[in-house]
Amino acid sequence: MKSYIYYTAFFLFLTACKAQSPIYDISDLRDGPKNSYYKDINNVLDGYDGTYLYKNGSTSLKFILKKKLKSYLYYYEDLVVGEFQFIRDGVEKGNTLANINVNYADGSVNHRIRGNTIIIGTQLGCPDCSPTEKRLRLGFVDNKSPHIASIDIRKTTVNGVAAIRVVIFWDGFTIRKQGDPAPPPASINTGEYLMIKQ
């Protein structure tokens, strides 16, 4: 009887070990098996959490960003997720800030801003970055139109206060069928924004 208990315990242990997902660093290529975990092993996604505000007269852009661990798409991964509010000339064009704390039932991440692509040095449009400086590229899906954008984020300080330089550029549209009406205008203007941490 004692050997049966040891055998059962050993079998359960092996099964548990085999069932675990392999863990990779988020900087690795996403070529692992389904349910792999791309973990922020070196904490490069740290330091982006918070509320950031750009203001110029009656135009403002606000982001709320936070790190989300082990989010599920095809595999598990650590991400920076966010929501936004954009006011142009005193008129609110988009606001999803209330969704920042939504935990989606299926474990997926449906936030308007999300991603974890690390850009190093002068790659992809930062000639004044140092060779080892790390920036973050996130995706943005508009809540009112089929526009898809990328957002490059660079940490900085303004008068001793933490800030981010944000560059927003449109990548294209989600799939539209021929004959569909023209998409409504995007919620956010493309361009560069210096956003101060609140």
Structure description:
The chain is mainly beta. The chain has one helix and eleven strands. Strands 3-4-5-7-8-9-10-11 form an eight-stranded antiparallel β-barrel. 22% of the residues are buried. About 5% of the residues have low confidence.
What is the compact description of this entry?
The protein has 1 helix and 11 strands, in the order H-E-E-E-E-E-E-E-E-E-E-E.
Instruction: Estimate percent helicity.
Output: under 10%
User: What Rg do the Cα atoms give?
Assistant: 21 Å
Number of helices: 1
Structural class: mainly beta
Query: Cα distance, first to last residue?
Result: 64 Å
Characterize the main sheet.
8 strands, antiparallel, barrel
Low-confidence runs (pLDDT<50, min 5 residues)?
A: 10-18
SSE run: HEEEEEEEEEEE
General form: globular
